[in-house]
Amino acid sequence: MSTLLIAGICAAWLAMNVYLSRRIRAIDDNPLRRNMLLATVWVLPFMGAFLAWTHLPRQPRAAKAASTAWPDGFTHDEAPEHIALGDGPGFALRDHMALYDGLPLLDWQALDAWASSMGDADRQRTAVALGKRAWLLHLRDALGPDFRLFESDDAFVLSSLEDVVAVATAAYVASTRKRIQRVLAGVAHFEAHAKSILLVVDDEETYYAYVSSYYPDGGEFAFSGGMFVDAGCAHFLAKRADLAAIEPVIAHEMTHSALSHLKLPRWLDEGLAVNTERRLTGEPRSPYTIQEWKRKHRAFWGEAQIQEFWSGDSFFRTDDGNLLSYELARVLVEQMGRNWEAFVHFASNAAREDSGAQAAADFFQVDLGAYACALLEREPDRRWAPNPQVWGAQGVAASDA
Questions:
Q1: Does the model's pTM come out above 0.70?
Q2: H or E segment and range at residue 333
Q3: Phi, psi of 193 (to 5 degrees)
Q4: Residue span of the structural domain in which 51 resides
Q5: Within a domain: residue 66?
Q6: Rounded to 5 degrees, what angle do the CA atoms 221, 245, 151 make?
Q7: Among 57, 60, 345, 355, which residue's beta carbon has the most beta carbons within 10 A?
């Protein structure tokens, strides 16, 4: 390698590190995190700069507002106090919005009622879209000056991501919609005129403050990297990371969005989401060997625990039961999905009220309890069949979240 080439590489490395160091020192963050980012830039040539860049907040809106160089799709619009469509009656946002931990929650039923007065279906869809966008602008302001709203033909992305990352994320959302519909042909559905909404928050504190309004009251939260919220306005949530880390969360949560019209039992919904995530983004490294998985399953599952699984409660456990629930759901769906034609009929008819037991009998001629016993290498036990009479109220609420 020539001396001139080496000198050029060193000059590029130095210029890039100086630029990133200035950006890092300018961010409003705790000193420990700033120092960690600075160390990453200078200790790891080039790779450290890339890692630090993906974790930088975007430049504050106030600084950006002085420039008109925002890429297409980002908005300068202020959060509106009211919205209207043509000469029809207006909708006052403030009168139908409440704050939860400082974050705005819109009364979606009130918005739907207002939209219903607009006349034909196209005007109603437009009215709802106006309400969603207005709410996102209020949420943007509540999250802080680093957050911006990006809008494409298929998606809204509300985040503090760098411009290029936010645009790439929206493009990934759009392509993932199409891929999910191909992979889950016959069961997945996205409304043609409804844009997918992704909210990316910066830290766990904000993440859990936001999702707490959609979880049952009380108790602890199981750790999660993302969540699909189907409460008036379907949207999904992820924690900030580089795009490669966010992709599996987007694929998983968008699968929930595509299946929400079916109102599936939680185990079936989660099993489909996990398997689709793996097909779209690759199989993650397993924390256990096959034999270790078997030992953990045998040690955990019993009559009470399997009823928690059928009701949906076990997916909210804060112990190993959470991880084992997702794994059991994944295996059940993977095995049943081998006969896709029968599976489509099963999923289209599986009811939350009996956790899909009747649909399994109708389209697979199997008892779900016996099927689970077989997969876990246990003797058949009639007490393992879904039994709604022993399910608690929390399981029903969790399935409806």
A1: yes
A2: helix 320-336
A3: -100, 5
A4: 3-56
A5: no
A6: 95
A7: 355
